[in-house]
Specification:
Order of helices and strands: HHHHHHEEEEEEEHEEHHHH
Number of helices: 11
Bound molecules: flavin-adenine dinucleotide
Largest sheet: 4 strands, antiparallel
């Protein structure tokens, strides 16, 4: 028995470098996350002490080129996300927010000076970034945001509020998306700016080993150089979200795999009716269904990764993986929990923690419904995001 379902010799589809990257992150998770995660989750602690170690492994902005970033392939980035999320979605989310959202925003839309100033320090984990798009009254429809940046001489003054912003209370910079007289623009806002306040959201029933905040911006004054010069309109934040969504398509498989492995191992040692519960056909059906779904999810993620590395990945294809793999992962985590019986609701076992985390994952970076509508629009040619109320 292996804790990783291996029905299809998936590893044969990976290069030696890809397997090595995967194995090094798996080793890190086993040594540094797995022994402590139940306690961090229970105590609602994000382990900031791991940030330098994640940087040392080259995981911060790992898919970006230059500026001290590791320049790894999309498949390697995906494999790393999968291994981190086998530890906990909160740790994978840290890497996604830092690398795919905050660093990507600067890498894609920033000036040369902004890239030089921030990216090397962010890759080293010395500067943490966050990404403020969602607002209290603007979630799935970010075009309705009301945070506003007005010109003030050469500079800007920003007023507004953001909600659910990962890492904001420990970040040194926030990428803030705001309306302007010329449409939506992005700004690099130092979090020690006067008028910037980040307050962690509590209590949370999901993603407890990570931080999300409310942000208020009250007359936050910024110099002209704070604006991301290449970011014009919603396409700019969406281009960053696509990077993170791609990583989620891989990451959730890790949570599913860890749930499956926990259930498999438990079922082989738990005795009821004088035999291991793994010997019951109903238990085997659950394990087989989980293993098959994990294999399918891996193949889907790898297909996307190869397309991304070839430069031909389309946004609707990212929606296929974000929607399908997250849906599969949450079903697997819940089913794994049933195999653990009453012990499945104890913090000593991971599946219910993963299932609770995956409630967030299915909601952020585009909900299940929004990705369904993206695909519906692609298939029919008819966008159904609004009706004619
Ligand atoms: P709403 O948009 O109000 O949606 C509520 C429900 O209505 C959902 O089921 C939704 O699918 C449904 N719905 C909405 N519109 C339609 C439609 N047209 N058709 C059918 N159904 C619809 N945001 C950031 O900017 N930065 C972050 O770092 C960040 N991190 C997050 C971390 C966590 C743990 C969580 C929970 C959220 C995070 N978010 C972040 C916010 C996240 O992106 C939003 O929660 C998400 O976009 C949904 O927005 P909402 O919560 O306002 O829900």
């Amino acid at each position: 028995m292996t804790p990783v379902p291996d029905l299809l010799d998936f590893d044969e589809l990976l290069s030696a470098d890809e397997r090595a990257m995967r194995d090094s992150v798996r080793g890190f998770v086993d040594a540094r996350i797995r022994p402590h995660i139940a306690g961090w989750y229970d105590d609602a602690i994000f382990p900031t002490e791991l940030v330098p170690e994640l940087a040392e492994l080259g995981l911060l902005g790992m898919h970006l080129n230059g500026y001290g970033c590791a320049g790894r392939s999309a498949v390697e980035y995906g494999l790393a996300a999968m291994e981190l999320e086998a530890g906990d979605s909160g740790l994978r989310t840290f890497v996604s927010v830092q690398g795919s959202l905050a660093m990507s925003a600067i890498h894609k839309h920033g000036s040369e000076e902004q890239k030089q100033e921030w990216l090397p320090r962010m890759a080293r984990g010395e500067v943490i970034g966050c990404f403020g798009l969602t607002e209290p009254n603007s979630g799935s429809d970010p075009s309705s945001m009301t945070t506003f940046a007005r010109r003030d001489g050469d500079g800007w003054v920003i007023n507004g509020a953001k909600r659910w912003i990962g890492l904001a209370s420990i970040a040194q910079i926030a990428i803030i998306w705001a309306q302007t007289d010329d449409g939506i623009r992005g700004f690099i806002v130092p979090t020690d700016s006067e008028g910037f306040v980040a307050t962690p959201i509590a209590p949370k029933l999901s993603m407890r080993a990570s931080i999300q905040c409310d942000i208020t911006l009250t007359d936050v004054r910024l110099p002209a150089e704070a604006q991301l010069p290449e970011a014009r309109g919603l396409r700019a934040p969406f281009s960053c979200l696509n990077e993170a969504r791609y990583g989620i398509g891989w990451g959730v498989i890790g949570a599913a795999r860890d749930s499956y492995a926990t259930a498999l191992s438990y079922s082989l040692t738990r005795i009821q009716f004088n035999q291991p519960i793994a010997s019951f056909q109903l238990t085997q059906q659950k394990l087989v269904d989980m293993a098959i779904e994990i294999e399918k999810a891996q193949l889907l993620a790898l297909r996307l990764g190869r397309l991304k590395d070839a430069g031909s990945l389309a946004p609707h294809q990212i929606s296929v993986a974000k929607l399908s793999n997250t849906r599969a992962a949450i079903a697997i985590a819940r089913e794994a929990r049933t195999i653990l019986g009453g012990n499945g609701v104890s913090g000593d076992y991971s599946p219910l923690r993963h299932a609770a985390n995956l409630e967030s994952v299915r909601t952020y970076e585009g909900t299940d419904e929004i990705h369904t509508l993206v695909l519906g629009a692609h298939i029919t040619g008819i966008p159904a995001f609004r009706n004619t109320l």
